[in-house]
Amino acid sequence: MDRKMASETVQGDYFVIKAKENGVHVIGLTRGHDTRFHHTEKLDKGEVMIAQFTEHTSAVKIRGKAVVITRFGTVDTDE
């Protein structure tokens, strides 16, 4: 498999997180036998983060009021 094809098989979907308040935490969780936190970002009101699932990130936890947009739809944490 060439380098481009290998990269495409590892990369996952993109998603967008828009903070509706200051201090929204976005926490990346690892893939593998033990799930662990591996990356944290803090967003303030109006900030937007575009993220992607990868070979290292299998899940994302969001704390605070935000809108999450994926190819499957939109989730508002207020609801």
UniProtKB/TrEMBL annotation:
Against Pfam families, the record matches this protein to: TrpBP
Keyword terms, alphabetized: RNA-binding, Transcription, Transcription regulation
Q: Does the UniProt entry include the keyword Phosphoprotein?
A: no
- For the Tryptophan RNA-binding attenuator protein domain, which residue ranges apply? 11-78
Entries under InterPro entries matching the protein? MtrB, Trp_RNA-bd_attenuator-like_dom, Trp_RNA-bd_attenuator_dom
Family matches, as NCBIfam families: PRK13251.1
What is the protein name for this chain? Transcription attenuation protein MtrB
